[in-house]
Amino acid sequence: MLTFAFRRILLAIPTLLFISLVIFLLLEASPGDPLGDVPLTVPPEVKERMREALGLGQAWYIRYVLWLKQFFWVEPLHWINQAFGTQLGSGGQRIISFQSRSPVFDVIAERLPQTLTVVGMSYLIGILIAIPIGILSAYRQYSWFDQLGTFVSMVGFSMPTFFTGVVFIIVFAVNLQWFPSIYDTTHRVTDWDSFLRQVRQMAMPVTVLALYNAAQISRFMRASMLDNLGQDYVRTARAKGLSERTVVLKHVLRNSLIPVVTVIALGLPAVFGGAIITEQVFKVNGLGQLLISAIHANDIPMVLTLTFIFAILIVTFTLIADIVYGILDPRIRYD
Fold first, then answer.
1. How far apart are CA 289 and CA 112, in angstroms?
2. pLDDT, tens digit, for every residue of 208-240?
3. Are 39 and 307 in contact (CB under 8 A)?
4. Residue 63: pLDDT above 80?
5. Could you give the CA distance from residue 140 to residue 147 in angstroms, rounded to a whole number?
6. Which end of the chain has fewer CB atoms surrounding its CB within 10 Å, N or C?
7. Mean pLDDT throughout 64-70?
8. Where are the chain's structural domains?
9. Is residue 162 a contact partner of residue 156, using CB atoms and an 8 Å limit?
10. Backbone angles phi, psi at 96, to 5 degrees
11. Residue range 90-112: average pLDDT?
């Protein structure tokens, strides 16, 4: 397993470098100018100096190599210096946002807690809801529970999150006034009342994302369970006198989780992309809203860094899914 993981990591390095180059070239070819909003009264020589200060006067390949150095060398050294008080690589030029003129990773670190709080909680709740529903729907196929679960899943998966979010705001925030329609990112939990306020403002965005995730995962869980319930090893286990609970939860569930692990692992990075729309609807000041504003401002360093982080997450969770395969099914070997 360690050898397989090491090989996959070595393979991921050129893959990520190629992805970063493609993203960089696409952004380089995109129309727009980071200095397009500069007033016309600014003299051309001053505007040219501003362009050079942003690194726009260099060739694209020089800026690409410089960005790689900053991402993989300067920024990690900066994190080490902050964590341990060292002076490794001090003075290195960090990745600077065109829009805020601040280090990109500092801005991301400010927005990350909001996204992790909303997205992480919604994905966890979605998984906890989806797996039991998928198991029961498959075990009681064509029952009223299965029919209800299928209907709710189809509705939840068919409706986009921006539509569901608006419906929730109209019903629960405007009409019933149960929850706030705008997420207050400046709110801090200090006591019980502030904790309840945090729960109330998280309720709608977390529910919207959780329902969407649960709808997808529960369908995969049901299909995988149905496929395994008809296998010969299930009839053999029942013929040996094993209890139905043991057959379903120990034998069938373990094998059924293998394809579901892929959906869960690959869906986690994709949730950050889906949260872009949800964060816009509920005004959550997270990574999704940061990416949208960076795209509008043609902030190439911010867009490049965020999209590349998403690519790293996809590659990482793909590796984790492959490793979990070997844990769930001993027949899978990576020698």
1. 11
2. 888 888 888 888 888 888 888 877 887 887 888
3. no
4. yes
5. 10
6. C
7. 85
8. 104-296
9. no
10. -110, 135
11. 80
Among 109-123, 160-174, 262-276, the range scoring the smallest mean pLDDT is 262-276
Of 162, 168, 156, which Cα lies nearest the Cα of 202? 168
Contact in structure between 168 and 156 (CB atoms under 8 Å) = no
Which one-letter DSSP state was computed for residue 236? H
β-bridge mates for residue 103, sequence order: 96
pTM for the model: 0.77
- Amino acid (one-letter) located at 329: D
Tell me the C-alpha distance between 45 and 50, whole Å.
Answer: 9
Q: Output the six-digit token pair for 20.
A: 């970063």
CA dihedral 90, 92, 95, 98 (to 10 degrees): 110
Q: HSE, CB side, 13 Å, CA atoms: give it for residue 121.
A: 14
Architecture of domain 104-296: Orthogonal Bundle (1.10)
Q: 135: which 2 tokens?
A: 């198991």
Q: Taking 70 as the threshold, does the pLDDT of residue 150 lie above it?
A: yes
- The pLDDT mean for the chain works out to 79
**Where are the alpha helices (H) located in the chain, listed in sequence order?**
2-29, 44-53, 60-69, 75-84, 104-115, 121-139, 144-158, 161-168, 192-229, 232-239, 244-246, 253-282, 287-296, 300-328
pLDDT, greater one: 46 or 60? 60
3-state secondary structure of 96: strand
In eight-state DSSP terms, residue 95 is: P
- Per cent of the chain over pLDDT 70 is 86
Cα 74 from Cα 79, distance rounded (Å): 9
User: Among 39, 191, 217, which Cα is nearest to 124's?
Assistant: 217
Contact 167, 208 (CB under 8 A): no
Q: Using CA atoms, how far apart are residues 274 and 290, in angstroms rounded to an integer? A: 14
